[in-house]
Amino acid sequence: MTHAITTLFGIGHLRPAPGTWGSLAALPLAYLLHLAGGFWVFFIATILVAGLGWWATGVETRDAADHDPSEIVIDEVVGQWIALWPVSFGAMFADMDMLRLWPGLLSAFIAFRAFDILKPGPVGWADGLKGPTGVMLDDIIAGWMAALVVAVLAVFAHLVLV
């Protein structure tokens, strides 16, 4: 069961770029969670999946030589969902379908993948931590940084361009 959780039911075995596949798979899941209950359900699900992912990653990597195997993508799911928080919140606030905010969805995906791949500053620091904390925390920080980019772009688009 922990393998299914950490690989998002096998998506982490897709090649090349399993992290990108995991992030891509996170998008429709985020949309379904938003449809199920808006931002707050999506927010709580993100927190729960982060905890579940941390536990499952700990089980999967216990006594393993590689502490961050590439097939583990539950961390990308959590980071991508955090990057999508401003979009989900904005859709709830404006009472509109989340898909109508597609520039935000695209921005969140690109920004999260960039921060996850390039690992600037605190993302790189967290990536160096051992165990499930290192696996999960770098993507959580990358998700926060991407969410900030999405929020700044939204403010620019709605206040400056309009």
Structural summary, described in words:
This protein has 162 residues and is mostly helical. It is built from 6 helices and no strands. The longest helix is centred in the N-terminal third of the chain and has 44 residues, at 18-61. The radius of gyration is 15 Å and the shape is globular. The mean pLDDT is 94.
Report the portion of residues in β strands.
under 5%
Contiguous runs where pLDDT drops below 50 for at least 5 residues = none
First and last CA, distance: 49 Å
User: What is the 3D form?
Assistant: globular
Q: If you average the pLDDT, what whole number results? A: 94
Number of helices: 6
> SSE string, helix = H, strand = E?
HHHHHH
* Residues in helices, as a percent range: over 70%
Summing up helix and strand content along with how strands pair, one would put the structural category as mainly alpha
Q: What value does the Rg take, in angstroms?
A: 15 Å
Largest sheet: none
Query: How many runs of DSSP E, i.e. beta strands?
Result: 0
